[in-house]
Fold:
Amino acid sequence: MTSSETSTEAGFQPWHFFILLSMLAATAAVWRSRDTHPAALLLVSGAVIAAGLAGLACYHALVGFFGGGREARAISARDREAMLREKALVLRSIKELEFDRGMGKVNDADYAEIGARLRARAMDVMREIDAAPVSAPPREKGAKAPASRACAACRTDNDPDARFCKQCGAKL
Structure:
Protein backbone atom coordinates (compact mmCIF):
# COMPACT_ATOMS: atom_id res chain seq x y z
CA MET A 1 0.00 0.00 0.00
CA THR A 2 1.45 3.37 -0.94
CA SER A 3 0.58 6.65 0.66
CA SER A 4 0.34 9.96 -1.08
CA GLU A 5 3.70 10.92 0.41
CA THR A 6 5.58 8.01 -1.13
CA SER A 7 3.71 7.71 -4.41
CA THR A 8 5.34 9.75 -7.17
CA GLU A 9 3.19 8.75 -10.13
CA ALA A 10 -0.58 8.81 -10.35
CA GLY A 11 -2.93 7.86 -13.13
CA PHE A 12 -2.15 6.55 -16.58
CA GLN A 13 1.48 7.09 -17.56
CA PRO A 14 3.02 6.91 -21.07
CA TRP A 15 4.99 3.77 -20.21
CA HIS A 16 1.71 2.03 -19.39
CA PHE A 17 0.59 2.61 -22.97
CA PHE A 18 3.77 1.15 -24.48
CA ILE A 19 3.78 -1.92 -22.23
CA LEU A 20 0.09 -2.65 -22.83
CA LEU A 21 0.43 -2.13 -26.58
CA SER A 22 3.45 -4.41 -26.84
CA MET A 23 1.77 -7.12 -24.77
CA LEU A 24 -1.36 -6.90 -26.91
CA ALA A 25 0.76 -7.10 -30.05
CA ALA A 26 2.62 -10.13 -28.66
CA THR A 27 -0.68 -11.80 -27.85
CA ALA A 28 -1.96 -11.08 -31.36
CA ALA A 29 1.25 -12.49 -32.86
CA VAL A 30 0.93 -15.70 -30.84
CA TRP A 31 -2.77 -15.98 -31.67
CA ARG A 32 -2.04 -15.50 -35.37
CA SER A 33 0.56 -18.28 -35.51
CA ARG A 34 -1.28 -21.18 -33.89
CA ASP A 35 0.56 -24.17 -35.32
CA THR A 36 4.06 -23.09 -34.41
CA HIS A 37 6.71 -24.52 -32.12
CA PRO A 38 6.56 -23.04 -28.57
CA ALA A 39 10.18 -21.80 -28.75
CA ALA A 40 9.31 -19.81 -31.89
CA LEU A 41 6.27 -18.36 -30.14
CA LEU A 42 8.44 -17.25 -27.24
CA LEU A 43 10.90 -15.65 -29.65
CA VAL A 44 8.12 -13.81 -31.49
CA SER A 45 6.60 -12.61 -28.20
CA GLY A 46 9.97 -11.45 -26.93
CA ALA A 47 10.70 -9.59 -30.16
CA VAL A 48 7.36 -7.79 -30.09
CA ILE A 49 7.77 -6.80 -26.44
CA ALA A 50 11.32 -5.62 -27.18
CA ALA A 51 9.92 -3.48 -29.99
CA GLY A 52 7.49 -1.95 -27.50
CA LEU A 53 10.33 -1.17 -25.11
CA ALA A 54 12.32 0.36 -27.96
CA GLY A 55 9.30 2.55 -28.74
CA LEU A 56 9.20 3.61 -25.08
CA ALA A 57 12.89 4.52 -25.21
CA CYS A 58 12.31 6.59 -28.36
CA TYR A 59 9.38 8.32 -26.66
CA HIS A 60 11.51 9.26 -23.65
CA ALA A 61 14.27 10.54 -25.93
CA LEU A 62 11.84 12.73 -27.87
CA VAL A 63 10.21 14.06 -24.70
CA GLY A 64 13.61 14.92 -23.28
CA PHE A 65 14.72 16.52 -26.53
CA PHE A 66 11.67 18.73 -26.90
CA GLY A 67 11.64 19.80 -23.26
CA GLY A 68 8.50 18.07 -22.09
CA GLY A 69 8.42 15.83 -19.11
CA ARG A 70 7.56 15.78 -15.49
CA GLU A 71 7.17 18.72 -13.20
CA ALA A 72 9.89 19.39 -10.70
CA ARG A 73 9.50 17.41 -7.50
CA ALA A 74 9.11 19.28 -4.27
CA ILE A 75 12.21 19.35 -2.11
CA SER A 76 12.23 19.19 1.64
CA ALA A 77 13.02 22.22 3.75
CA ARG A 78 16.27 20.56 4.81
CA ASP A 79 17.41 20.11 1.19
CA ARG A 80 16.43 23.70 0.42
CA GLU A 81 18.49 24.92 3.37
CA ALA A 82 21.47 22.92 2.10
CA MET A 83 21.06 24.48 -1.34
CA LEU A 84 20.83 27.97 0.19
CA ARG A 85 24.01 27.29 2.18
CA GLU A 86 25.78 26.18 -1.00
CA LYS A 87 24.57 29.32 -2.78
CA ALA A 88 25.89 31.51 0.05
CA LEU A 89 29.22 29.66 0.00
CA VAL A 90 29.64 30.08 -3.76
CA LEU A 91 28.70 33.77 -3.63
CA ARG A 92 31.13 34.31 -0.76
CA SER A 93 33.83 32.56 -2.80
CA ILE A 94 33.16 34.94 -5.70
CA LYS A 95 33.53 37.93 -3.35
CA GLU A 96 36.79 36.56 -1.96
CA LEU A 97 38.10 35.95 -5.47
CA GLU A 98 37.29 39.53 -6.45
CA PHE A 99 38.99 40.79 -3.30
CA ASP A 100 42.09 38.68 -3.97
CA ARG A 101 42.25 40.00 -7.52
CA GLY A 102 41.98 43.57 -6.25
CA MET A 103 44.82 42.91 -3.81
CA GLY A 104 46.97 41.48 -6.62
CA LYS A 105 47.00 37.91 -5.27
CA VAL A 106 45.29 36.42 -8.35
CA ASN A 107 46.29 37.17 -11.95
CA ASP A 108 43.71 37.97 -14.64
CA ALA A 109 43.85 34.55 -16.35
CA ASP A 110 43.21 32.67 -13.10
CA TYR A 111 40.52 35.18 -12.11
CA ALA A 112 38.69 34.65 -15.42
CA GLU A 113 38.86 30.85 -15.18
CA ILE A 114 37.94 30.49 -11.51
CA GLY A 115 35.35 33.27 -11.69
CA ALA A 116 33.62 31.65 -14.67
CA ARG A 117 33.38 28.31 -12.86
CA LEU A 118 32.09 29.90 -9.66
CA ARG A 119 29.51 32.00 -11.50
CA ALA A 120 28.32 28.99 -13.50
CA ARG A 121 27.94 26.97 -10.28
CA ALA A 122 26.09 29.85 -8.61
CA MET A 123 23.68 30.08 -11.55
CA ASP A 124 23.07 26.31 -11.45
CA VAL A 125 22.33 26.38 -7.72
CA MET A 126 20.00 29.38 -8.08
CA ARG A 127 18.14 27.69 -10.94
CA GLU A 128 17.71 24.55 -8.83
CA ILE A 129 16.40 26.61 -5.93
CA ASP A 130 13.96 28.51 -8.14
CA ALA A 131 12.77 25.43 -10.05
CA ALA A 132 12.03 23.13 -7.13
CA PRO A 133 8.93 23.88 -5.08
CA VAL A 134 9.32 23.38 -1.35
CA SER A 135 7.30 20.76 0.43
CA ALA A 136 5.86 22.16 3.63
CA PRO A 137 7.26 20.37 6.65
CA PRO A 138 4.83 19.32 9.34
CA ARG A 139 4.73 22.10 11.94
CA GLU A 140 5.12 21.27 15.56
CA LYS A 141 2.89 22.82 18.16
CA GLY A 142 4.37 26.05 19.42
CA ALA A 143 6.99 26.23 16.64
CA LYS A 144 7.58 29.69 15.27
CA ALA A 145 8.26 30.50 11.63
CA PRO A 146 11.83 31.69 10.95
CA ALA A 147 11.82 35.44 11.39
CA SER A 148 13.45 37.81 8.95
CA ARG A 149 14.91 41.11 10.04
CA ALA A 150 13.21 44.14 8.58
CA CYS A 151 15.24 47.32 8.24
CA ALA A 152 13.87 50.20 10.31
CA ALA A 153 14.94 52.74 7.69
CA CYS A 154 13.71 51.23 4.41
CA ARG A 155 11.54 48.25 5.54
CA THR A 156 13.55 45.76 3.44
CA ASP A 157 13.41 42.14 4.63
CA ASN A 158 16.90 40.86 5.40
CA ASP A 159 18.28 37.47 6.37
CA PRO A 160 17.90 36.57 10.05
CA ASP A 161 21.67 36.63 10.58
CA ALA A 162 22.27 39.92 8.72
CA ARG A 163 23.99 42.74 10.57
CA PHE A 164 23.40 45.39 7.92
CA CYS A 165 20.50 46.07 5.51
CA LYS A 166 21.09 44.71 2.03
CA GLN A 167 19.22 47.65 0.49
CA CYS A 168 20.39 50.79 2.29
CA GLY A 169 23.31 49.50 4.39
CA ALA A 170 21.89 50.67 7.71
CA LYS A 171 22.91 48.72 10.83
CA LEU A 172 20.21 46.29 11.97
Summary: The first strand starts at residue 149 and ends at 150. The two ends are 52 Å apart (CA to CA). Residues 1-7 have pLDDT under 50 and may be disordered. The helical segments are 14-32, 38-65, 77-102, 108-131.
